[in-house]
Design goal:
With 444 residues, the chain is mainly α. It has helices spanning 3-39, 43-79, 83-111, 122-154, 159-179, 191-215, 233-266, 269-305, 312-343, 349-381, 386-409, 415-440. The protein has one domain (3-440). 83% of the residues lie in helices and 0% in strands.
Length: 444
């Protein structure tokens, strides 16, 4: 792999990734906006939103994993110039999104009666249930939106989904102002108001992207002529063969972060609130390598469909290099500006001090976090999902959580120890996933 080949592939990857990154930033900004606006309503509501989001994200990330085959197979069909195949993968993906979304919603509704079993502070459990139920209902429209978004991006049209998400952030903030604080004749609803705002924004986003796709002539050849019925079992098995391991990979990471948040709750409301601030900031920075990874996976899959395997290493390693540099920059910002950043969210001095310490740890694991997500997406592009799923299982459940528990709960490091465990798991995943991609794309 020559340097010129590497540089030649970086530019188209960044061109595709840019609107995807902005779109993910918009989606994350919705959560950050919620945290900031809820935080000014009090530390307990902020801690409750952290707990509710931690549990919801387990279901959300599982859904994201099952939707990944839409982008992978549509990209491959586009590379092979078979738009009818792309339409079929969109249609089958939508069926999976609705079916799985309804199932997840029902499970979350049942789980809402058991939230007290997670060992969180009583004042947190007392107010979290309405917020969590509203998020549960929002899982269906958010997965439907995700299917259409991945289809549009895989077809090479990522800008409209970005603008729809950007509009959703603005709408969510405006609705938060109305429902959280009580304006325009609406009583102040606090945390529950944030849940109402999110549900409305996500539902309208799903309708908006479907309306745009129906009217866009550029994707008309790959848009289904019929939506329901006559499904192919072979196609569903093919998609689930990629989607289930991909969902497992994402769930291993998401549950590690979620249970780390639950362990923070064992330490009290202040550590949990500090964790929510730090994880919101780290997640915001993570949107850059996440968007880059999605573009990388689609470009790798497109190259496979076009029978251009000689480009795979340049696409993958070019993206890894860009991701490393970007995350190093974010890490420096967290390390030197953590206290200032934390003060944007809350006025509690104890929460600010702990959040600043957690952001120092986040600065250290930003680079390996970026590497592991890009490498895993590149592997999905070549349809390698089973061994990467095993690697992530070991990384997060074999290393991150046990190490975090030993250092933070059993040991003296508290919240910093829990986050150090996460850093250890991310490092393991980054090394072994990158090595796996290098081996699979080596030309004989």
């Amino acid at each position: 792999m020559s340097r010129s080949a590497l540089l030649r592939e970086i530019r188209p990857t960044l061109t595709l990734a840019a609107p995807i990154i902005v779109g993910h930033l918009c989606q994350m900004l919705m959560g950050v906006t919620d945290s900031a606006m809820i935080g000014h309503a009090g530390t307990v509501p902020l801690a409750a939103s952290a707990f509710g989001n931690n549990v919801f994200n387990i279901f959300f990330v599982g859904g994201i994993g099952l939707m990944i085959p839409v982008a992978i197979f549509v990209s491959r069909a586009r590379g092979a110039q078979t738009p009818g195949e792309a339409a079929e993968y969109l249609r089958h993906g939508l069926a999976v999104a609705i079916g799985f979304g309804v199932l997840e919603m029902l499970v979350m509704v049942a789980l809402s009666t058991q939230l007290h079993r997670f060992g969180q502070p009583p004042e947190v459990v007392a107010i979290v249930t309405p917020f969590f139920l509203l998020f549960a209902v929002s899982i269906v429209p958010v997965l439907v939106y995700l299917v259409f978004r991945q289809f549009a991006e895989a077809m090479g049209h990522p800008w409209a989904p970005m603008f729809i998400l950007l509009a959703g952030v603005g709408l969510n903030a405006a609705l938060n102002w109305v429902f959280i604080y009580g304006h325009l004749g609406v009583p102040p609803l606090g945390l529950t108001g944030a849940g109402i705002s999110t549900l409305i924004s996500r539902t309208l986003g799903a309708f908006a992207i479907f309306w745009w796709l129906r009217r866009d002539a550029r994707v008309r050849a790959a848009f289904p002529l019929r939506w329901w019925g006559n499904y192919s079992r072979a196609r569903l098995r093919e998609m689930l063969g990629v989607g289930l391991p991909a969902a497992g990979m994402l769930l291993f990471e998401a549950t590690a972060f979620a249970f780390s948040g639950i362990m923070m709750g064992w330490l009290g409301a202040v550590p949990l609130a500090a964790h929510q601030i730090a994880i919101s900031c780290a997640s915001l920075a993570f949107m850059f390598p996440l968007g880059l990874s999605i573009a990388t996976g689609m470009r790798v899959s497109h190259a496979v469909g076009a029978a251009e395997r000689d480009r795979l290493r340049a696409i993958g390693f070019g993206a890894l290099a860009v991701g490393l540099v970007a995350m190093a920059v974010f890490g420096l910002g967290f390390a030197f500006g953590g206290r200032t950043i934390a003060a944007w969210f809350v006025d509690d001095a104890a929460v600010i001090a702990l959040a600043a310490q957690l952001l120092v740890v986040a600065a250290l694991f930003q680079m390996v976090d970026g590497v592991q997500v890009i490498a895993s997406a590149a592997l999905r592009g070549v349809m390698d999902v089973k061994l990467p799923a095993a690697i992530t299982l070991v990384a997060y459940w074999g290393i991150a959580l046990p190490l975090g528990y030993a250092l933070g709960i059993r040991g003296p490091w508290g919240g910093v120890g829990i986050w150090t465990g996460i850093a250890g798991g991310l490092t393991f995943a980054a090394v072994f996933l990158t090595v796996r991609f290098a081996r699979l794309t080596r030309l004989s």
